[in-house]
Sequence to fold (309 residues):
Amino acid sequence: MSTLKTKLVYLAGVTGLLLNTCSAVAATSGSHYPMGGEGVVAGTPPPPGMHYRMYNTWYNADTINDNQGDDSGLDVNLDVFSQVHRIVHVTEKKLFGANWAYNVLVPMVKTDISIAPIGVDDSSSFSVGDLILEPLALFWYRENYEAALGLAVIAPTGDYDSTDAASPGKGYWSGMMTLGGTYYLDSDKSWSVSALTRTIINGEQDETDVRPGSEFTIEGGIGKQFMLDHTWLVRPGISYCATWQISDDSQDGHGTRADERKEGYGIGGELNVLYLPWLLQGNIRYTNEFGAKNMTEGSSVTFTLTKSF
Fold:
């Protein structure tokens, strides 16, 4: 496959190591990485160079499930809009046979939540959430697959108030390891199967002194890429995601139990379109959640715009 065609495949799969910072009511205070942030070719890293990406996600939920996965019966309405600005630089420097990269993500979040039976009726302005810094990302580019490994820190830069369910920040530090890849089923790299995992270790939350349990998330998809002409490249596909809390909270919180862990699944579809002359692409994805425990269950629409340089 030509060098140009290889680069176009990578560009059409610019995902790498990112965060989608929608808020969600959960066993403690939500998550720094709700599932569904990525989909098809989730494990495909961007090629060497500079890339800018903007994520826009609309999330809605009207159900909070209990520890058995049943509707808790609470009259809840949660609407979240998040916009994440990401700049990533993939260098030519090699480490363990991989290209070293680094990136920063700045999330903006607006949340409206009401839970009538317990008197919650909070909203937030469109404001900065918790900043994500990833100083170490390693990208491997091979003939039939790509792989990615990253280490990131999430800083509690967003405003947090334990009495405000709509706070844009979470009030604690987190460390995240990302590991995954994309495998291509044909020599032209048109058919792809991907999986990207996140392991998140949380620090102690301000004001509550609760340390949320560690989390493990996996997401990815299967897609088919088509070159319509010399200008347009499209890729429809089916995406999946799942998340599990893999350790207990440090102690019981307000209205929560430390041993009641979060769990959830999602499935959806997406379409990616790349305009080759501008190296500009747009991706729209719909995700429907199911099987949730100790967290909200809803749906999301994500529109992503990417410019490569």
Observations:
- Confidence is low (pLDDT under 50) at residues 1-7, 12-28.
- The domain at 3-308 is CATH 2.40.128.130 (Lipocalin).
